[in-house]
Specification:
InterPro entries: Acyl-CoA_hotdog, Acyl_CoA_thio, HotDog_dom_sf, TesB_ACOT8-like_N, TesB_C. One of its GO terms (molecular function) is fatty acyl-CoA hydrolase activity. This is Acyl-CoA thioesterase II. This protein is an alpha+beta fold. The chain is 15% helix and 36% strand. It has a single domain, classed as Acyl-CoA thioesterase, double hotdog domain (Porin, Beta Barrel). The protein has 4 helices and 12 strands. It has a 12-stranded antiparallel beta sheet.
Length: 275
Amino acid sequence: MSSSLGAVLATLELEQVENWRFVGQQLPAPANHILGGHISAQALLAASHTAPGRAPHSVHTYFLRPGDSRRPVEFEVVDLQEGRTFSARRVTARQDDKILMEAMSSFKVADPASAQVTYQPQIPQVPAPEALPWAAPHLAESDEKTRGRWASLRWFERRIIDTEIAPPARSPMWVRPDGTVPDDPVLSASLVAYLSAVTLTEPAFTARGGVGESAQRDHSVWFHAPALLSDWLLYQRSSPSSADSLALANGTMFNRNGDLVCTVRQEMYFPPHRN
């Protein structure tokens, strides 16, 4: 069930079957459920193909059904706005006419004049990735009972800095793809969306006492600067709240040079235990 970076990049080369329709192959995953981060990355790429020359500004995704990772997914793009500065697209992902996911994406024309007013949070002062030990690609991979369950995430490597158990359960880490990524800003943004989703589950797991049955409900990313995927990214994660079977997780991602790459929010659903 392992997925290499090459396999991931191959699935991000969508087949265009009509002007506004695309098909994407999936990756192996636990219980053959499609990974939310992966399908979200594919949806962002599908939308970007209809907004050439504009960079991803944000993406907001609702995950509605798990789907079957052994089969391809169809992505239908709808043009919601084509303005002077912004383009907005809705993407619907389907299998067998059942909707798996709905995503709203925004794209923006670069505005050099806006660089006159910039500000962002400072990158946290943490140990360099080279000074930290190897870490499994997902929290579940560290548990003997679940080892191998998330082997589909072995296309990136990471280094864990420290973890706070009590909410907000801060869990910073360094992360980077396990190989060379083509120099394509939209592809880089899509990989950032993927990474930000699949690793943002962990602070919620930690705060709630361990890995359990769960599902991503929604995921949002605001892109601020291009990710430098040839080097490590610092991802600061936390889970500030949990109520009514839902847990919220936040994240900010930085290039190693200190540039803020993106801000992330995600909510997870933890169904009640059934006998």
